[in-house]
Amino acid sequence: MWHLFGPIVRWPLHSPGRLLGVIAMAVAAVLALGAINDRGSKSDAVSPEASASASSTTRSPSNEPSTPSPDRTAAPQSTGEASSTSAGTDAFSEDPAANSAIVAAQDAAAEFVAAWARPDLDPATWQGGLAPHATPELRQALADTDPANVPAVTVSGQPVQVAVNAEAGVFDVPTTGPFIRVFVELVDGIWLASDVQSTAAPEAAAGG
């Protein structure tokens, strides 16, 4: 064995420079091996605190009871007090449909007087002007009337309600002369005059 390793061992001894180089290389090799061993030891060692922290952060949340979040889009519940107040108001409020019917009947009475009080027209034109505003029975009753005999007046205000219900009504229509009393009826959804009279003054409303 010595004849194999002898020359290698004797080689550094031939010169101080060779010996120092060999020693330096040996020291560097030892330090490198020590650094590698230290890194391996640190990577393998795990502290108990780190293990506990990692375990707690990776634990599945399925075991925890979930708390439902409040529904912010839900509409607010109406209170009983507000509902009762609304119901009370509706109970005492006027019916718009009823008011509209009264206004329509008033307009029909005024429009009939405006067409009827035309002594300046000939009979045929006068009868034609009455047709959209009077019932067939009233037109028949006025068929022989000479328009020259009707008062030459014009409507001067809102008809005064004497009596009215869902199907008929009585109104005193103010004019530039006497009041004209007009009876109206609801025929096929249209208010038409069914009779006409002169009256000195309007009467107080008798209610529906």
Would you mind describing this structure in some detail?
The protein is α+β, with helices and mostly antiparallel strands and about 210 residues long. The protein has a domain at about 95-200: Nuclear Transport Factor 2, Chain: A (Roll). About 45% of the residues lie in helices and about 15% in strands. The protein is built from 7 helices and 4 strands. Strands 1-2-3-4 form a 4-stranded antiparallel sheet. A hairpin with a 5-residue loop joins β2 and β3 (about 180-185). The termini are far apart. Residues about 50-60, about 80-95 and about 205-208 have low confidence and may be disordered.
Tally of individual helices:
7
Strand order of the largest sheet: 1-2-3-4
The ordered string of helix (H) and strand (E) elements is: HHHHHHHEEEE
CATH architectural category of the domain at 97-198: Roll
Structural class: alpha+beta
Overall geometry comes to rod-shaped
Percent helix range:
40-55%
Label this structure with key terms.
208 residues; alpha+beta; Nuclear Transport Factor 2, Chain: A; 7 helices; 14% strand; rod-shaped
Itemize the secondary structure elements and their pairings.
Blueprint: H1 2-10, H2 16-44, H3 48-58, H4 80-92, H5 96-116, H6 123-130, H7 136-141, E1 160-164, E2 168-173, E3 179-187, E4 190-199
Antiparallel strand pairs: 1-2, 2-3, 3-4
Briefly, what is this?
The protein has 208 residues and is an alpha+beta fold. It contains seven helices and four strands. Residues 40-93 are annotated as: Disordered.
